[in-house]
Amino acid sequence: MTDSLMQRGDVKALLDKAAGLDNDTGDRRLKQIVRRVLSDAFATIEAFQVTPTEFWRAVDYVTRLGQSNEAGLLVAGLGLEHFLDILLDEEERKAGLEGGTPRTIEGPLWLAGAPLAQGEARLDQDPEPDAETIVMTGQVRDPDGNPVPGAVVDVWHANTKGGYSFFDSSQSAWNLRRRIRTDGDGRYAFRSIMPVGYGCPPDGTTQELLDRLGRHGQRPAHIHFFVEAPGYRKLTTQINIAGDRYLHEDFAFATRDELIVEARRETAPEEIARRGLSGPFSTLTFDFTLNREADHLPETVVLRAHATAA
Ligand code: MBD
Ligand code: FE
């Protein structure tokens, strides 16, 4: 027999009471989850003989994490957000759904309400003289390979310093953020600049914990997408640019082989002139396949608190 305190009647009663399981009001499901989380915390404290000093240090960390607005960053870095993808992939598989462009995490830096363009857009507004111009094109398709006209491709990415507009106040409003409605052939196109991978704020609370885990806080260069169309399941995904040194070392675990895209350098003068550019640029091509919505499938629309632009 174990002599764990977790088996003791008074500890079990404490957990039940703390989680509100001894009363009939409140939220039944939440009570059960709180009971489990608390119980796991108690058991961890006991198993590791966590000292009060260590315990209060952790409480202080959580306080500072919230104050620094980095909770969404930490859950990405600890693989929790990726685990939600693993879970949803598995639920879909069990429900008989296969195929379609793989999902990967949203991350903490989306902003609702980006300007909506028809068919094509230019995303880069702020001058970045050393940036590589990119032209990205592709098609949104249904599971049979037919184009999906009128789909909305919501795209957001970082600048050459790894920063995202709104969160990085040095950038103008909506820089590198657009919604693009696919044309009659289901196609989208945009001009932008090649993003650089993101790094956690070096003095931030997330990096503070990562340091103590012996981990870096870097992401490879990537571009985020939500793809939505009536009758189809919302897709949350990203593409990774091939060749980045962190491609398979993403601190947020979001890289998937099917989402790696090779940038093709274009130097032909006629191609440069055709697009009205002043020098060589890179092209990226990626087609999205959306799955059809059905009642028996798990929800893909995630409600979560987002920053809202003023
Ligand atoms: C990002 O740009 C990002 O996509 C994620 C998941 C976490 C931090 C920064
Ligand atoms: Fe990102």
TrEMBL record:
Keywords linked to the UniProt accession: Aromatic hydrocarbons catabolism, Dioxygenase, Iron, Metal-binding, Oxidoreductase
Pathway(s) it belongs to: Aromatic compound metabolism; beta-ketoadipate pathway; 5-oxo-4,5-dihydro-2-furylacetate from catechol: step 1/3
GO molecular function, one term: ferric iron binding
EC number(s) per entry: 1.13.11.1
Requisite cofactors: Fe(3+)
Pfam families noted in UniProt: Dioxygenase_C, Dioxygenase_N
Any single biological process term in GO: catechol-containing compound catabolic process
Catalysed reactions, as listed in the record: catechol + O2 = cis,cis-muconate + 2 H(+)
Domain Intradiol ring-cleavage dioxygenases: 136-164
Superkingdom of this protein's organism: Bacteria
Recorded family membership: Belongs to the intradiol ring-cleavage dioxygenase family.
Protein name: catechol 1,2-dioxygenase
